[in-house]
Structures
1.
Amino acid sequence: MTTTNAFQDIKPQRPWQASTKDKLISSAIFLTSVALAYGVVLATGLSGKLGMFTSFVFIFIVITAGRSYLQFGSALAKDSLVKILVAVGTFLTLIPIASILFEVFSKGYKGLYPGLFLRDMSLNSPNDPANVGGLGHAILGTLILVAIALDD
Amino acid sequence: MSTTETTYVIPEKRVVTTKPRFSDKVFRGVVTGGGLSSLVILGLIFGFLLYQGFDIFKSQGLAFITSSRWDITYDEAGNVLSTEFGLAAMLIGTILCASIAVLIAVPISVGTSLYLSFYAPEWLKKPMVTIIDLMAAFPSILFGIWAYFILMPSGAYWAKLLNHYLGFLPFFKNELRYFESSPFIASLILAVMIIPIITSISREVFAQAPLDRIQAAYALGATRWAMIRAVVIPHGRNGVIGGAMLGLGRAMGETVAVYTVLNIVFTINWQILFGTGGNVASLILLKFGEASAYEIKGLMAAGLVLFVLTLIVNFASDLLVRSFGSKGK
């Protein structure tokens, strides 16, 4: 005898989640804005990454907020405007971090080698390549300083 | 039948006292000592700076704050002939850079913390919080070098754009067309440095917004922005102001990053795009290495001025936070 659960075929509905159609529309808006921004960069005096970024944000805001205004009215238009502004703020926060991490790793990876943390610079001359000697003295000193400061 | 004599023993009166036990006293003493020690250290720093800089304050008087020259002449034996110490350019530069940095950083930080609190999907939230906290822990010399090599070219380009389109405003004038090492670029790097601080403070404040009111707002049909405006912002305004003031304090005391970027010149400069500026902390770093014993006294006096300035900002922020004392609608 097999028991069947009467509810097993019923999928929970999540009407607040974006449907596939919504996702398609929003990615289409995104791509259109990128293309239009590129067009603006080609056609007008705005140039470079800054011009591309500003015109993209402006066009994206106009399209998205305009669409929700026409569809749902001013409250949702404001909501989508704030959503974009907030995301832009986050993007601006992340740019310096990404840039710093990228520069540090892309410029510094050549100096990384196993002895870096153990050896010191006592036998080095100014013209040595990056993988002679190491940071051992500096790391030891930092550890000592921090240990005393925390111990106190 | 025998009568049993029951004697009632009246117990001694229980002594109720507020006198603490010995162990309590010891603990209280240790904790009070720990709490007061920071105050004592602060007082000692103040006293040391005042003691070292007293001669300078006596000889320069009010000109120490109002003039903007830093000259010291010696005779051949190395004795000090005449001195002229004035911090006006440095003070104005410090306040200018720090306030521009806060103006740039606060909107970005509030946006970021709102995004992290209410918009970001869960899988994105945790790594981003970690990364932004990591940024708060970067050493300031790293920011300085990054600003010098990476930010400076872009910053000078943005400064040229600002000058080209908004050059009619007095702040954006730049007659000599020198855009590197300007207070504008120093403000940018200060903004980058204080964004993580303001972001994490605002995020914590926004996270404490009362959940019942948030859900009530949603239940009444509010959009996310309407909910934020009605519940989160009134509740979190104090915290954001406090975070901004903390950022201002950090920006005013920042030494190495500004020293790396800024071109320190003893002229009062209100044109933020022009490549001369001043900063008290960086001045001390600049002069300290080769200062004579008398000039070091001048630097100590400069340190005292910066110390007092930071204290004033902190008290002002306390007052400001208290005057916006409402806790939401």
2.
Amino acid sequence: MTAVSISSIPSDPRARHQRSRSSISRDRAWALRWSYFFLILFAIVFLTPPVYMLITSLKTSAEISAATNPWWVYAPTLDNYAALISSAQFLTFFRNSAVVSVLVVSITMLISVPAAFALSRMRFWGSASIATGVFLTYLVPETLLFLPLFKMFAVFHEYTGIELINRWWVLLFVYPTLTVPFCTWVMIGYFASIPRELDEAALIDGANYRQVVTRIFIPVALPGIIAAAIFAFTVSWAQFLYPLAFTTSADQLVLPVGIITSLIKGDVFNWGQIMTGALLGAAPPLVIYAFLMDYYIAGLTAGATKG
Amino acid sequence: VAEENVAVTVFQNAQALATVQRRSGLRRAMQRKSVIAFLMTLPLILLVVIFVLYPALYSLHLATLNKSMERFVGFGNFEFLFRRETFWMVVKQSCIFAVTAVVFKALFGFVIAHFVHNIPSKGQRKWRGMLLVPWVIPPAMSCLAWLWLFDPSYSAFNWLLQKVAIGPVPWTGDAAWARCVIILVNIWIGAPFFMIMYLAALKSVPEQLYEAAAVDGASWWQRTWYVTLPMMRNIIAITVLFSLIVTFANFDIVRILTAGGPIDQTHIFATWAFRVGIESGDIPLGASVSLFMLPILTIAAIFILRDINRRGNEA
């Protein structure tokens, strides 16, 4: 058909224009269909593990070890959830994780908000190098530091008699090394985008720096601060290596380590409860993400795009 | 009249005094500004020095001690490592793991970002939200789900494969499969991050450039190659370098999925350092192993820093 139309009216520019436009829109339609097709495919792949967690968490142990279709729940039950929620041990893990994460977020904010304000607003000798240094610190992985830290804590114990290994609160000292550099870096970028006149005006009117930060700056910079706080929370909630290396007794463990050490006994995997625990452990970050998605993504992309 | 004059003078003096006071107040504030600023940054500096800088240097020292950490052995630990076959396997495995995973993450991220960018903008939020879920779930938790999906006897994938008459795959039991599985899980966790970064970059490419290219009759490939890629070059470079560091130093995935097995064949630097340093109690040897992550981290960091400085100068 197109061949006919081309040969019949080859010299009419308007017709040719229409034809090319319709072919573009047809291309668009196909591109759209393919896009949806692949998006659905990727969404299936990406959501399989969490969905499978949910499926397994609703099964009884008998059904899990039966030779039935693993992708379907034949006799749904909430027993696994009831067992975990009534287990004092699991609640301890959850509480430890929650306490550590909330405190780490607070500590991070107390350290990085003033630091980011000072580094982005109050140029002083060495401030530029400190900002770069902060960024470099963010690139140092925890896998490089856990052994010297472990030894440092042991030496500290020898000298002062204060035991740091196998205490949940020691995580309050080491987690900020993961959260503070990135949060400070992101907030330096965010603070730099706020007009300087705002705080200069307040300074000239006689406000001191504390007032400028708390009354003027923090309210305006709140979106950046929330994004950084979400990042700090998700990092501390998900951290696995430090608690695995530094804590061992059941009452000191945080959730990720607790699930793995308490629900896997030797070669016996209680999969129903493990998946329930993993799902409950994944829930807080997922809930935060669901409600504050824009802040979450802003924090994620700010590190590289704003720098 | 005199009284009036006095009143005027007093008023003027008061005004002058006020400006002087305000000026000196401002000046004092300026003088103290650097002190205040330094105090505000002090907690950050202390944190970095005590818990990052010092341990990093301390690990250099630790690496030169013997197992009981009483005797200086120089490069003894490194000589010992170089003689061990496991060490070279760990080096190889770490490099293969990091490079393959990053390449595929970047590739999938790029492709998915394009698909999301293609669809009408009102649906994009929903898809983006769904596709970022693997990144949001704590890796330790999602790795447990993968471990269960790859379970030797109850693997749900094997159940599906059995339906199409493909025999049970030893997902984590066989070294070659286990390596693939680890890379696969890493891609699953990391690709959404690339997707989000690229999507943000795609949004920032001016629409006029595509219109101009379309007017010039550029094909889809040409538009991608000559418009999209050059515009996104910076963000691609920095995301890849970031990811290279994080992937190279990865711990959670290997630890949970295989714990280095079968027979230490899937260990990467971090997990082997943990095995040697914490579980076998040889902290100096573990520290020596983890120090091997430094070269690649330094190289990546230098490139990232250069990029950031360049952009800082442009701005």
3.
Amino acid sequence: VETDLRELFAIRLVDAGYSSARRRYLADVVSLLRFRSSIPVPSPRHLLGGSREMVHDLLFAARLLRRQPGLFGATVAGLAVAIGISTAVFSIMHAALFGDYGIAAPETVNRVAFTGAGRSPITGDSGTWGNWAFSDYVQLREAASSLDVVAAARWVSDYRASATDGAPFRVTVAAVSGNYFSVLGLHASRGRTLAVPDDVPGQALAVVSHGFWKNRLGADPAIVGRTIWLGERPFTVVGVADRAHSAPPSAGSPPAFWITLASQADLATGDAAARAADTRARLDALKANRAADAAERERLQALERDLANPARRWNPAVDVFGRTKPGVTRAQAEAEVSVIAMGLPGARDGGPAASRPTVALAPVDAPARGTVVIISTLATTVGFVVFLACANVTNLLLASAATRRREIGIRLAIGASRGRIVRQLLTESLLLGAIGGVLGLLIATGIMPTFAALIQVPPTFDVSPDLTVYGFVALLILAVGLIAGMAPARYGGRGDLVAALTSDQFAAPRPLPRGTLRSLLIGGQAAASVVLLVLAALLTRSLVHSAQVDLGYDPSRIVGVSIGRGPGRVLQPEAYWTAVVERARQIPGVDGAALAVAAPFSGLSPQLLDGRRVNRNETSPEYFETMGVRLVKGRIYTADEVRQQAPVAMISERLAREAWGDDDPIGASLERVWGRSDAPGKATPGPYRKPPGTRIVGVVSEVVNELSTQDTPTIYLPLAPTSVAQMVLRTRNDPRGLLPALHGAVQSADPSHRPTTLFAADGLQRDLQRPAMLALLAAVVGATALGLAVIGLFGVTTFVVEQRRHEVSVRKALGATNGDITTMLFRDSLTPVGAGLAFGTLLALLGGRVVQGVLYGVGSRDPLAILVAVSVLVSAAAAAILLPVRRASRVSPAQLLKQG
Amino acid sequence: VKGDRLGEFEELLLLSLQALHDATYVVPVQQYLERTAGRPVSLGAVYAALDRLELKGFVRSSMGEATPERGGKSKRLFSVTREGKRMVQDVRRVRDAIWRAIETGQ
């Protein structure tokens, strides 16, 4: 045939000249291939045409991908999931970390850090403290000439949409000075921002953040002018902050609302005044009681100390930011602020250097150290997942390039340049990347709410994708396309004409570089999969354990009732609670009512006492009977002991076992648990007090207050009058039907009170949600990694086996059976998986400690979890390898030798 | 596959082979066809049609002797079989009958 072609070319050269002869020659090559083989060959017009190359490349790529729907589909799916997860992570990272806060000309805005020394105007204690006090800020504002300073304080408040809305929602609120928005150059997208005239007592105005407005208020267009409730006070919304201003330039999540410092003072002094009045009333009652014993006297002193506490005065710690005036350098401003700080009331000028306040100005746009760590961790994870996906696309394209040498040879034969071939191959990988990217974006949009909830993104973040996120996805696609397409393009671009025309695909396989990189990729994928699968298995086991845990009470019949925070709501006189509890007991269907600092799932966090984590609850004597807690030993403290705040305590069985072993804890001092008690007469009221001489009177069965502390034992102390109590009730049936009656009982004592109820069953459900979500996420990521590994393994094995067909045929001709061949190829392909498996298992064993904190009832080196993960991976890998290997081993030797 | 019928291109090929006095190879056939028919003919088409004709038994091929012009490679020589000759004759008879009918207007 070749000689025929050459001869014809010679004839035509004489007849019609070179270019015509060449054109006809090429056309003949194509005609030969068309008539004599079934391989689809692009018509020369497409390749030489030029103007519509791109479109043709795409169409051709699409046709090719359609020919291998299985492998192609799996690769694209893996890629889509990888891009989807990366995009979701990036969106949150972007919203959380990369916001430029919307500050105008941020280079002139500085955070004014202040370390005070001496007597703190905030707490009244001596020592050093790390914040500006509001009173100091006022002095700074009046004295500073080199910069305009603003102040911002944050705290958490109960948000309600209306006065009658019974379910408060906890939000972060920022109280800012009136000049905050104008000095920082922040705008409102609706309505207006807060201004200096707003910052006066008696005004109650709020600006809502974009994220909160969008996520919680449903982007209500009529929000401006509406009234919302923070704590017990109504605020009028004057505007919605611009989306760019997602966070004030300090660490932490952005606030839901900005209000003025003056209105915050109104809120706080209301609270403080009510508390002070409450304390004073109790103090007077105690003073009137002449027969005061030691305990009573101590309580009296504690109350007096509480009343004198300077924290009762409104002078909060604030963050201070300053915009330097034109022409002023940061150093000049810092020098001036330092001088002003020396003159502040708390500072002891002229004292030792250690007692002087220090001031430092730092630009707000410099990322914090913690931020850098988070970014690099996330970027590494994202990069790794995308890399795995890339490896798969590479494998797919490499395999397809190997089987397409003939096609590439033909393209070269009919005049395609090498560059053109490379471009075609890159088009293919970019097409894969683009399909994966678009699907990935859809996945990201779909999983975003779940994902955001899972890592507890505050509702003030707006994480919906914006232009930057789309840009990120485009960049990912480009990266995947180029990186994944590089190797096959380099390989494919070297196809040669003679091989293409004189032989079939594998007659003379050009030796590929040894598959070290390929083995490493496979091993790495196996290792990553095993780590993630172990994690998923551990979390699932932990979840199952949590769902079955014995709470120590029946959650479907227990309900906690607390009354909202606000002026006069923090502490209630005993008489108030006595009345409420008495009324609640009379409600038909209520089996018991008691008081406790912590009702189940109301957020009791353990204390670290002498190196041991212990829950501390304070209760009335009825608590134990109400909850259905079993008395194991001794007795329950009496109502009289609670009233007198006698130094008695009860402990749970676990603590008795842990701290006393076989000894009898009854009558023992609690110092074995909490170390040294408070000095007599020095006991401060509060959740950390250790009344001297406290003795254990009883041991009771365990109560699980929070799933996260289910293994933590509990000590019970008599409920102190200074502690914030909740009511715990046990009902005969489902407590939900009793809700109106419960509210009635609370409001009969004070009609203005709005109780919040927490059903233990709901709390349990809520507590289970997070481990369930974590387990789900780990399972999804683990499955993705496994899927990617299987796809990659399948692709690589297909490729390698194809490369070894010649060898296989020779072996078979020499007498190897199908089984021999299968075993050989299988063993060779499984080796890198085995290595990766071993490494991954080792990694899981070593790294397990990191997740121990979120595991319950299962060790981080749980053999079952590791066994499950390893066997899942091994069987998936074996299946992925066996398929192409079996196919290769079944080909008859004669057929292969004919091709050779 | 057209069974044992002849396609137009196959018919022309059979005729060309006879015109070239048989035992010829593919290049002269292609050249003859292209010149006589006045249209470009691709080598692939010629090969494919010859393969088909050989399958139908109208053409047989044999390897000729190596010639120096062809780099010492032998040619594949084609000649028309008896069945092939009869087939073109049949086709011609049918055509002639029809042409006569057209010309006499019957």
